[in-house]
Amino acid sequence: MRLDIAVSRRFGLSRRAAREAVRSGRVDIEGSARDEPGADVPEDARLEYHPDRPARRRVRTRVSVLYEDPDLIVVDKPAGLLAVPTAEKEKDTLLSRVSLYLHHRYRRRPYVGVVHRLDRDTSGAVVFARSREALRFLQQLFRSHAIDREYLALVEGAPAPSGYFGSALVGDGASVRRRVARRDERGRRAGTRYRVLERFSGASLVSIELETGRTHQIRIHFSEAGHPVVGDRVYRPPGAAPAALQAPRQMLHARSLGFPHPRGSGSVRVESPTPEDFAEATARLRGRSRQKKSAPVRPGRSRILRDGEGS
Fold first, then answer.
1. What is the Cα–Cα distance from 284 to 304, expressed in whole angstroms?
2. Catalytic option among 4, 69, 76, 119
3. Residue 303 DSSP class
4. pLDDT recorded at residue 151
5. In 10 A of CB 231, how many CB atoms?
6. What pLDDT, in 10s, does the model give residues 254-310?
7. Architecture of domain 1-57
8. In the 8-state DSSP scheme, what is residue 196?
9. Strands 252-260, 267-271: pairing kind
10. What pLDDT sits at residue 172?
11. Cα(291)–Cα(216) distance, rounded to whole angstroms?
12. Delimiting residues of CATH 3.10.290.10 domain(s) in the chain
């Protein structure tokens, strides 16, 4: 059992409070302090909670940690932040923030391996490896598509209640833009499953599961189907009718990740909370839909029909 879960149950704390107690060095296992919330402990382990003990150290960071143990770390990527540097060698990226966090937390230069990425304007859960062995294991999981991944997206229009997109994808010359392969082209297989969670006037909230993880896969598949992701300025067809909502970025969020643990000790499953801008966009769509449903119907003009009229 994870240490933070054991502490939460044993001492009646919320999961967040339990994680903070562990990280602050206020929890002992068999008489020794442990500060790794994801550490595995036996269910009958002797735990002690010392709420008044001074915090061992506090790590000031600009990264939100969803899960952490000696082999890996899963963090919450905000929209607008690059996952890793490009050829421009940006200083502030998710990778640099994770590296800084681990450096301050453990007082040594950390190993941080890049397992996968999210687009700059996509938010959600991203996993990094903390050892070369874990990196090889996790990268193989992603290559073999043995990762459970769920995304949330706001898309234009009203797609079928559920469906599957299987169009192969190709790159578009030297640009970063991708597209669906033509009949005479050999593209890379891409599979996207979805189901509609909620419908609005002119848009829908959908849950998406990936069979593959091609670059821009979700955005391309939904755009090809006539339901581009709300706020997507790259793949939205030119000349399309005005969208039901103008959004500052593509409304796409990597909500959850699930995968076997590198050490074979069970599995890891994390969920990223819905970001504020995504929740606000959903609320605005929901509010507009309610207004349209409740709008009064204007009475039309009527007149008395004489015999023979209207037949």
1. 44
2. 119
3. -
4. 97
5. 22
6. 999 999 999 987 899 999 999 999 999 999 999 988 877 665 545 444 333 344 444
7. Roll (3.10)
8. E
9. antiparallel
10. 54
11. 34
12. 1-57
User: Do 279 and 267 meet the contact criterion of CB atoms below 8 Å apart?
Assistant: no
Cα–Cα distance for residue pair 311/298, rounded to 1 Å: 26
Torsion sign across C-alpha atoms 4, 7, 9, 14: negative
> Cα separation of 134 and 230, whole Å?
36
According to CATH, where is 3.30.2350.10 located in the chain?
59-294
The reply to whether 307 belongs to the active site is no
Nearest in space to 78 (alpha carbons), one of 270, 243, 278: 278
Q: What CATH class is the domain 59-294? A: alpha beta
65 has which bridge partners? 75
- pTM for this structure? 0.74
Q: For residues 219 and 153, what is the distance between their CA atoms, to the nearest angstrom?
A: 9
Provide mean pLDDT across the span 211-216: 87
Residue with tokens 């959908």: 206
Encode pLDDT of 105-152 as tens digits: 887 889 999 999 999 999 999 999 999 999 999 999 999 989 999 999
